[in-house]
Design brief:
mainly alpha; two-stranded antiparallel sheet; 15 helices; about 45% helix
């Protein structure tokens, strides 16, 4: 099965994949070898999608072999991330009582040694959504038949991670963009993306046997139903707002649709999506949030933070991120909206960049040149933008490839979501955990929240 996506995976292995740990490290100068938890989990989603495609369309033994290698790559990355977390097990214990940023798990690690790369106070490490995304992905992959957790010690640690995230509805964190409130002063706040991803992870793990079809009651994860309900209540009160300082945020696409599917009210899903499209969508992608000064021509590169009165100068010149076209493209497939599929495919074709061998990559963001800012302010979305130097952007590239696999009918939506989270607005059927070997799969019971 030769596809553009296979070639792009080969590019990934050349540029990012560490042969020892399997983690995808950053190639950016100053951050080289840094492996962000969130980016790596999304990369795993992409590789998992490729593995499913090879499993479904293996024509020769070589294809089956490649599919197996891709599956084991997923396991390798997930286990390396688990090892990173387990090395900081004392932090998990401390955080359960202190809930202080200094006691949080780190947001990134060394792709070579799995060790920390920055100090506790040198980065906005408290990002509950990243840990929740990892746990959600662990649950989905376990349900699909992949064996990620090998021992009861690891089961106990995953249970501890559940305790680590379960109070997300009342723990201010630095959010999906790592910098806290909109002014980048490092002030943590309650973020809807963190609460939504936590709710999804708790629901996915509740009653799940981490040993899959070969487990026992000792390997089952338990979640307090009250914590799920608390997350749901706070999330419903926040949407379509992201936080106190952010009116809305394009990152909310990750919780109203793939991968979290955390919202059960269809009208609230539609309202949140419409708000994002109306307020944040541009020609090259979506702005992260209103008055986002990141990498704009008017941002002062000598400091990370802004004064509150400075935010107005970023209005209508914010950078646009193609990442969110990838989210919306996948969302259109999950909603079976043919018009939106074509619409966002057309936009993606305009923002991808061809490099050597005809490979198509997604840049991190598109920037408005300083000389065009006045014209853009007079007529929004009228000026051309240029891609910054970060390409491919691992997070966006992973979702782009996943969207291509879905579009080409190489994978089914149900295969990416064996826990049936996409049915969040209706009652879900019982989950069947798939086994890797010839044996009758064992059903696992889930409490469906109505």
């Amino acid at each position: 099965m030769k596809t553009e996506n296979e070639n792009t995976y080969a590019l990934y292995k050349t540029l990012y994949l560490d042969p020892v740990t399997g983690l995808f490290g950053s190639p950016i100068p100053g951050f080289k070898g840094h492996a962000w938890v969130r980016d790596n989990v999304y990369a795993v989603h992409c590789v998992w999608g490729l593995a499913l495609a090879y499993r479904n369309h293996a024509d020769v033994d070589a294809d089956r072999s490649t599919g197996y290698e891709l599956e084991q790559t997923c396991v390798k990355v997930m286990r390396s991330l688990l090892a990173c977390f387990m090395r900081q097990s004392k932090k998990v214990e401390n955080f359960k009582s202190s809930q202080a940023p200094k006691d949080s798990l780190h947001a990134k690690y060394s792709s070579h040694s799995l060790s920390t790369v920055v100090g506790d106070d040198d980065w906005g490490h408290l990002q509950i959504d990243a840990i929740a995304l990892y746990l959600l992905t662990l649950a989905q992959m376990t349900a699909s038949g992949l064996q990620v957790v090998f021992s009861l010690d690891e089961v106990a640690f995953v249970q501890n991670l559940v305790f680590y995230i379960e109070h997300a509805y009342r723990i201010p964190d630095f959010g999906i963009w790592e910098r806290g409130d909109k002014t980048n002063h490092g002030v943590p706040e309650l973020n809807a993306t963190s609460i939504g991803m936590t709710k999804a992870a708790l629901e996915a793990l509740n009653g799940l046997d981490l040993f899959g079809a070969f487990g026992s009651p000792n390997s089952v994860i338990h979640v307090m139903g009250d914590e799920i309900q608390e997350c749901q209540a706070v999330l419903r009160s926040l949407l379509p707002r992201e936080s106190y300082s952010k009116e809305t945020d394009a990152g909310l696409l990750s919780i109203i649709s793939y991968p979290a599917f955390a919202v059960e009210d269809l009208s609230q899903i539609n309202t949140t999506r419409a708000t994002i499209v109306d307020k944040l969508q541009g020609r090259y992608g979506c702005r992260r949030f209103l008055r986002d000064g990141y990498e704009t021509a008017k941002e002062d590169p000598r400091r990370l933070y802004y004064e509150p009165h400075e935010l107005q100068k970023f209005e209508n010149i914010e950078c646009e991120w193609p990442l969110f076209f990838c989210y919306l493209f996948i969302d259109a497939h999950f909603n079976n909206n043919q018009d939106k599929m074509k619409f966002y495919r057309n936009y993606l074709d305009k923002v991808v960049i061809e490099i050597e061998d005809g490979l198509k990559v997604i840049p991190k963001l598109y920037v408005l040149a300083e000389e065009n800012t006045d014209a853009e302010l007079k007529q929004p979305h009228s000026q051309d933008r240029y891609a910054n130097d970060t390409k491919p952007f691992l997070w966006a590239q992973s979702l782009y490839i996943l969207g291509c696999l879905i579009e080409e009918n190489l994978i089914k939506l149900a295969e990416l979501d064996p826990l049936n989270r996409r049915l969040s607005t209706e009652a879900r059927p019982d989950t069947v955990v798939q086994g890797k070997y010839e044996q009758k799969p064992r059903k696992q019971r889930y409490d469906v929240l109505v």
